[in-house]
Write a structure and sequence with these properties.
160 residues; alpha/beta; 5 strands; globular
């Protein structure tokens, strides 16, 4: 008899996305992403952070300022784009993306162009914003399936 109570594929991949997000230095929002193949193999991961070579202590992490260049927004690469750019194996056609926060319109463009066919997201806290509404409109037009992860309430403790 096989063991019972093991985690599902969705729990596994969303858990990896959440764990990846813990690498983010952003004090407000930590987002993680995991891209998997059609046969449930992990292809790539990413989290929101600065581009390679840009030191975390030399760039702003503020959300608001009268000067856009004093905020994090012009500098931070989102987790989805990082995961797409981190992939070194060729095509992502037909893959599935797990992400802890629904993608913005800019990430939606990259997801569509990369050939990712399914997006599984945890939070949709910005659902009413133009960026999220535009992302959903593009996903619908391009035939990218998206659905919210159904939390199981399972808690997993990992000692590092």
């Amino acid at each position: 008899m096989k063991r019972e109570g093991y985690i599902s594929w969705d729990e596994y991949f969303m858990g990896i996305a959440a764990l990846s997000g813990l690498r983010s230095k952003d004090p407000n929002t930590q987002v993680g992403c995991c891209i998997v193949s059609e046969d449930n193999k992990i292809l790539s991961m990413g989290y929101n952070g600065l581009p390679n070579g840009c030191e975390d202590d030399e760039f702003p992490w503020e959300r608001e300022s009268t000067d856009m260049l004093a905020t994090k927004y012009p500098y931070v690469v989102h987790s989805e784009l990082n995961a797409i750019l981190n992939y070194r194996g060729g095509s992502l056609d037909g893959s599935k993306l797990y992400v802890s926060l629904f993608p913005c319109n800019e990430c939606a463009k990259a997801i569509i162009q990369a050939g990712i066919r399914t997006v599984v997201y945890d939070s949709d806290k910005y659902a009413s914003t133009p960026a999220t509404r535009a992302a959903k409109r593009m996903f619908d037009a391009a035939g990218v399936r998206y659905y919210q992860y159904e939390r199981t309430g399972r808690e997993i403790k990992i000692s590092l």
